[in-house]
TrEMBL record:
Pfam family, one: SnoaL_2
Top-level taxon: Bacteria
Coiled coil: none
Domain SnoaL-like: from-to ranges: 7-124
Name by which UniProt lists this protein: Nuclear transport factor 2 family protein
Organism whose genome encodes this protein: Sphingobium limneticum
Length: 133
């Protein structure tokens, strides 16, 4: 995977093209973060459809490195609420580990993301958030 490949992935994510995003993952890929398992196309689409019904989420890549086996990046995840997403709604959707956000509020998080790659497709993804800005 190279930067142009990853830019297509990030562009699809920012455009909410969940099928294209999911196609970058190998069958059986481990897509787990923040206590959420998104390892099936349905789970992936359900999670992001719910989340993006409440917020606009964008990824801005600041640093990028790749090899045949690994993609690593540092970037800013920006989340802007288009409607209130309160603790009760999050909990009702099994997402009580997420922070509530009010309509119009913006949260920015520095995120480090590592993808394991086999034959040009992601087999796992892991990420860490360093803090809100």
């Amino acid at each position: 995977m190279n930067r142009a490949d990853y830019d297509r992935y990030a562009h699809a994510f920012n455009d909410r093209d969940y099928d294209t995003v999911f196609d970058f993952y190998a069958p059986g890929a481990s897509i787990r973060f923040f206590g959420v398992d998104l390892g099936t196309r349905d789970a992936f689409k359900r999670f992001y459809s719910f989340l993006h019904a409440h917020v606009i989420e964008t990824l801005t890549i600041e640093r990028f490195a790749a090899s045949d086996e690994l993609v690593a990046l540092e970037g800013i995840i920006r989340v802007e609420a288009t409607q209130d997403l309160d603790a009760a709604t999050l909990a009702a959707n099994g997402l009580d580990q997420f922070m509530p956000i009010a309509k119009g509020e913006v949260q920015q998080m520095r995120q480090y993301i590592h993808y394991h790659v086999v034959d040009g497709r992601f087999t796992s993804v892991g990420c860490a958030i360093v803090g809100l800005t």
